[in-house]
Amino acid sequence: MEASPSRPKVSVKALAILAVVALCVYLIDQIAKVLVVSNLFEGQQIEVLGQLLQFHFVKNAGAAFSIGSGSTWIFSIVGIGVLGFVIWYAPRIRSTAWAVLFGLLLGGLLGNLTDRLFREPGFGVGHVVDFLQIPLLPAIFNLADVAIVSSMALFLILTLRGVGLDGRRTHDGDETADPEAEGPADEATEPAAERHDEPKS
Fold first, then answer.
1. How far apart are alpha carbons 38 and 42 in whole angstroms?
2. Residue 186: active-site member
């Protein structure tokens, strides 16, 4: 009796990519914030690329891009909830692109959540360090925000292209394998096909 083929439930490669991307985003975000706090005073502005990019150090009590100031504890709870969901959902991912997406999201969430939990004025209500300003946006943001927004953009791209969590693309109801998806595509069906092709004695 032959064992029915099945895909691995957990992709070690995808989880490793997710973890590395999340760690890189988190470390870069936190190092940048430490440098800003150490070298700039609150409210200080420095032109980096003229008016195209400025460092403008502010402390944000709201969400990404300074939205909802004054409700820090709510965003802390929401952030912890989303963080838990990402960690719970991660083992389902077998696509490199989706692993990068969740890594960006996880790293960005951890970066801002760390500020809310451990920065002044207190646990759970800490102010997030923002320092990036561009003419296209009225709000000031940080690298964690950039990672979160990048994950959303990647989500739209993958969704529009029909790429699932397993790396397979769906077009007009038909699933086609994506090169990023792990595991052999049709190895399990080859032995059966070979047996049917054998000449009968």
1. 10
2. no
More confident residue, 64 or 17: 17
Cis peptide before 184 (omega within 30 of 0): no
How far, in Å, CA of 159 to CA of 30, rounded? 30
Q: Is the pLDDT of residue 133 over 90?
A: yes
Active-site residue identified among 29, 115, 145, 166:
145
Q: What is the pLDDT at residue 148?
A: 94
Exposed, middle or buried, 189 (CB in 10 Å: 0-12/13-18/19+)?
exposed
To the query of whether residue 29 is one of the catalytic residues in this protein, the response is no
Distance in angstroms (rounded) separating the CA atoms of residues 155 and 163:
10
Which has the minimum average pLDDT: 27-31, 64-68, 89-93, 177-181? 177-181
Name the active-site residue from 29, 115, 130, 178: 130
Q: Specify the DSSP element, H or E, that contains 36.
A: helix 12-39
Antiparallel, parallel or unpaired: β 128-133 and 169-171: unpaired
